Amino acid sequence: MSLTILTFLPVAGALVMLVFMRKRPSAYKTTALVTSIFTLALAIYLATQFRADTADFQFVENVSWISSLGISYHLGVDGISLLLILLTTLLSVVAILGSWNSITDRGLAFFISLLVLETGMLGVFVSLDLFLFYMFWEIQLIPMYFIIGLWGGARRVYAAIKFFLFTFVGSVLMLVAILAVVWSYSKHGGPLTFDILALQKAGFSGTLAIWAFAAFFLAFAIKVPMFPVHTWLPDAHTEAPTAGSVILAGVLLKMGVYGMIRFCIGFFPEVAVKAMMPVLILSAIAVVYGAAMSLVQPDMKRLVAYSSVSHMGFVTAGLFTFNQQGIEGSVLQMINHGILTGALFMMVGFFYDRTHTRLIKDYGGMARPMPVAAAFFSLFVLGSLGLPGLNGFVGEFLILIGVFQYAKVFAVIASIGVVLGAAYLLWMYQRTMFQQANEKWLSLKDLSAREIITLVPLVGMAIWIGLYPHTFLNLLHAPAQNIISQVQPYLAEHGNSLLGLASSFFGGF
Amino acid sequence: MVYNKFYMDEFYAATVVRVTVDGSRWVWHRFDEAVIDGAVHGTAWLWQSAGRAVRPLQTGKVQNYLLGMFLGLFVVVTVVVFL
Questions:
Q1: How far apart are CA B79 and CA B83, in angstroms?
Q2: At what angle do helices A391-406 and A276-295 cross, to 10 degrees?
Q3: Which of A277, A443, A505, B11 is deepest in the core (most CB within 10 A)?
Q4: Span A317-340, average pLDDT
Q5: Using CA atoms, how far apart are residues A40 and A363, in angstroms rounded to an integer?
Q6: Alpha carbon of A278: minimum distance to chain B alpha carbons (Å)
Q7: Does A169 contact B at CB distance below 8 Å?
């Protein structure tokens, strides 16, 4: 029952708000916050009950739902989904607290949207049934669409439609792939089932596997987003209100990589091994390209948005090396990116609340009126550029080790992205916090107590993961082993193939 | 000369930094916005144009629809009977 309660608690809170507190902003805001805190507390409690020594799914619930089609209400978590659930519940609290005073128009609908979104995201991470997964995957699109389209910036409608259509194109292709997979399994002697664990054991091969892999991969690549299907991201992140950007960058992008782990690799390990080289090439492009685009953005939010393309390139690169360090680094870097990019968007939001501009050239000398904000900002900037001691470094380091083992050339390219990352982040920090102070902002108030409370958990996580990542990596050993054992037979098989030749060539210098 | 560190900073600013920043800006406008996002907008334009092209067909006149139905029926019957 615990996962059901966890998943639907936010929506229950939203219902209470809708029925009893329509006209009382302070009451519904408090209810939203309390609901999200309870959800976080429950997630933390589940984490303490979680056994890290196995890759088996835990807290499993399995009830037949639509039995004639083999659809069941099947929930469960492993180490990977547990970490993503913790991230989701934490960032939901942060998003609600962070937008406490910045949403004045239709506040009830806004906070309800955030809670429905939380249920959708949690549902994606706990589902062990393809039908259920697809349902949650689509559900979270709707509140996000409204959050961008109603409470966003000047070009919000354009951004919202672009976000929706991009994701929808991918997910419709995914639906076809889901049906193809289920149909093929039942045709070749298996029962008619949407159960993810049963289908993972099926071992699809041949043309169907290649096409279904491609459809799944495109859907998730759009979500991540990988180069060249990334152009929805800068628009959506920039136009969304602060809470929307935090959730979008912090959690929604991770659903793409999560899908790749569960389906692209879980269902089609053979094709996934064949796809290693192309995925790594695309990831390497994304790392450098995203960083280069960040460097020249005049808008702070757009800069952080493009940096997500770069950082998520790291994540996909680490995943598709199929070794222990690469996979663990990849999942950990998802958490790190969620915390740091979420925090950066939050900071930009706090500045925007005061100045109503996001353009870097309008800022300058902000450290003088807002020293506390500047201190927080520096910590998140340093974490994001990979300073040892903070969390961004741990993930990047593990991924680089993993990629280096596979092909040195990609590790070298990725490190160019790290250098550019330091460049665009420090340059932005210099131009906004230091240099010639803009007279208009000298009388601005520093962060309020509420804003500081919003940021403190993120600082705590950044330092915790930076100094003692073992707590979190411990959860990832078994699932990473599980992924490796899925692809291991095919890795050996392809050792002497063209791919092996190519990797030895690339790895040769 | 020595006071200005042999203009090393100026040299780097004029070469490495300038090439990276200006190059990135060129790629942003000419490739990211023009080519990649251009393809996205091109797809949207294609469907909008297709919609505009067939819009005159919806006239609201029942006679026109009736004519269309008969013509369609004629084609179907012809195909079924003679092929």
A1: 5
A2: 140
A3: A277
A4: 93
A5: 36
A6: 19
A7: no
Cβ–Cβ gap B27/A228 under 8 Å = no
Partner-chain residue, chosen from B24, B37, B40, that has the shortest CB–CB distance to A296? B24
Return the closest-CA partner of residue A47 out of A474, A417, A459, A389. A474
Domain ranges of chain A: 286-509
Q: Is residue A295 within 8 angstroms of chain B, CB to CB?
A: yes
Per residue in A122-172, pLDDT tens? 999 999 999 999 999 999 899 999 999 899 888 899 999 999 999 999 899
Q: Which among A19-28, A123-132, A483-492 has the top mean pLDDT?
A: A123-132
Q: What is the ipTM of this complex?
A: 0.75
Residue B24 has its nearest CB partner, among A162, A228, A293, at: A293
Q: Nearest to residue A131, comparing CAs of A183, A72, A173?
A: A72
Of A52-56, A297-301, A307-311, A461-465, the range with the lowest mean pLDDT is: A52-56
Which stretches within A260-365 are classed as H helix? 266-267, 269-274, 276-295, 300-319, 324-355
Q: Is A289 on the interface with B (CB under 8 A)?
A: yes
Alpha-carbon separation of residue B15 from A45, A298, A431, B18 (angstroms)? 55, 22, 21, 5
* A208's tokens: 């169907």
Identity at B4, one-letter amino acid code: N
